[in-house]
Design a protein that fits this description.
The chain is mainly α. It has two domains: 56 residues, no CATH class; 35 residues, no CATH class. It contains six helices and no strands. Helix 1 packs antiparallel against helix 2 and helix 2 runs antiparallel to helix 3.
Length: 105
């Protein structure tokens, strides 16, 4: 129930102040739940509240695209172990947005 209500904050809060109030209530409920993982999550949310609340002050902008690109870059580095041609590796970095990094199932 707490997990789903945490997800709902992003759907239901219309501004930073509303989100802050809901996060505060969620953290209190999580701390009172008696579940150690929820207490840890509440502590983490409190410590990173400025960054979390920036979602509402920055027009719901997230770093998801950047994180996805960084993951692809790490994947390419693992695949490129042993490349001797640095220029080719640089070209592969520029080609990353078009590369599929998943295996076919």
């Amino acid at each position: 129930m707490l997990k789903e209500s945490l997800r709902g904050i992003y759907r239901n809060a219309s501004n930073r102040y509303e989100a802050e109030a809901i996060f505060t209530m969620w953290c209190i409920a999580a701390e009172n739940s008696g579940v150690p993982e929820m207490r840890t999550m509440a502590r983490t949310i409190r410590q990173h509240s400025d960054g979390i609340l920036a979602y509402w002050t920055q027009d719901r902008l997230t770093s998801a695209a950047m994180e996805g690109f960084n993951n692809k870059l790490r994947w390419l580095i693992r695949q490129a172990y042993g490349y001797r041609d640095e220029e080719y590796f640089t070209l592969k970095i520029f080609d990353l947005p078009t590369i599929k990094t998943e295996r076919d199932a």
